Amino acid sequence: MNTDDKRSVPPARSPARKPPKRVTPQYLENAALHYLERFASSTSNLRRVLMRKVDLSAKAHGTDREEGARWIDELLARYVRSGLLNDETYARMRTESLHRRGASTRLIAQKLAGKGIGRDEADKALDSLREDVGPDLDLTAALALAKRRRLGPYRRPEQRESQREKDMAALGRAGFGYEIARRVVDAEDPDGLLEE
Hints:
Layout: H1 25-38, H2 43-61, H3 65-82, H4 87-100, H5 105-114, H6 119-133, H7 137-149, H8 164-173, H9 178-186, H10 190-195
Helix pairs in contact: 1-2, 2-3, 4-5, 4-6, 5-6, 7-9, 8-9
């Protein structure tokens, strides 16, 4: 094959992106309601989502960023007054959900902080969960994670010893201390741990 016969092939193009829409108060309201239909959110998180839209509109259309921020503040204040946004309820629901999935109290606090929930609200949510579940949240969460991921006592008996260090490491990465990880991984009867 002669190298002169090669034709240059144009690079593959990705489909053209539509420019972002121009932000208006009504557009922000529609975007906020659409987001809240799909996800529970804290006030701070919804503000961050909407501000991204304002920033994109400012770049594409020259929208005034400060005016957009003012629209968002008015919208969020209205949602808080009406009860559509409630950080305390969000924190409690998110805490319960994360705990059921096996998140440590440390990880729960980090996730809540990432969504803009303050330390006091996070502590209230964890205290409320302690009243419902019991004082040892990390132990119950570690057991839930072990069960979900089939670690420690939830493994087949012939695998337990060979996988012990991996199971301990998995619980450690999830935010559990050494003592709790050891108790869960070495437990013969996981349900008996909660009764001790």
